[in-house]
């Protein structure tokens, strides 16, 4: 699989308690992305954050939250991500979804798709 040098990054923000058919939402998102042969997806769990409700979610011991922030990032072409968005809409409740351009410098083993920038 190859990735265009000018690709897109889809970021999906929600809480770790969010579910899809009884499973964690992040799992449903990653499995659907894999099923649709997207280039890759990664789940990040945040130690602290807040969203639309302004309710603070934190991993501090004295304020232990069971609903820490989760971000799923998916990188691929605009066309493939546009095809993924309707599936995402079906399985997501609340949350934030963003899409922004990224420059792919390396993907997978072998030679990089673009010259890596020289260190400053």
Return residue spans where pLDDT drops below 50 for at least 5 consecutive residues.
Answer: none
State the secondary-structure class.
Answer: alpha+beta
The CATH C-level class name: Alpha Beta
Q: What is the succession of H and E elements? A: EEEHEEEEHE
Protein architecture, described:
By secondary structure, this protein is an alpha+beta fold. It has a single domain, classed as 2-Layer Sandwich (Alpha-Beta Plaits), CATH 3.30.70.120. Helix content is 21%, strand content 33%. It is built from 2 helices and 8 strands. It has helices at residues 25-35, 78-91, and strands spanning 6-15, 19-20, 23-24, 40-45, 48-49, 57-58, 69-76, 96-103. A 4-stranded antiparallel sheet has the order 4-7-1-8. Helix 1 runs antiparallel to helix 2. The chain is globular. The mean pLDDT is 87.
Brief write-up:
The protein is α+β, with helices and mostly antiparallel strands.
Descriptive tags:
120 residues; alpha+beta; Alpha-Beta Plaits; two-stranded antiparallel ribbon; 2 helices; globular
């Amino acid at each position: 699989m190859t990735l265009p040098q000018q690709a897109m990054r889809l970021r999906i923000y929600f809480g770790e308690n969010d579910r899809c058919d009884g499973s964690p939402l992040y799992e449903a998102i990653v499995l659907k992305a894999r099923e649709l042969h997207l280039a890759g997806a990664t789940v990040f769990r945040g130690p602290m954050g807040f969203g639309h409700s302004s309710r603070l979610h934190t991993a501090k011991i004295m304020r232990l939250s069971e609903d820490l922030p989760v971000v799923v990032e998916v990188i691929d072409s605009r066309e493939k991500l546009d095809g993924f968005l309707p599936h995402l809409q079906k399985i997501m409740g609340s949350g934030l979804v963003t899409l922004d351009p990224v420059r792919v410098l390396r993907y997978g083993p072998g030679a990089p798709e673009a010259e890596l920038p020289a260190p400053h």
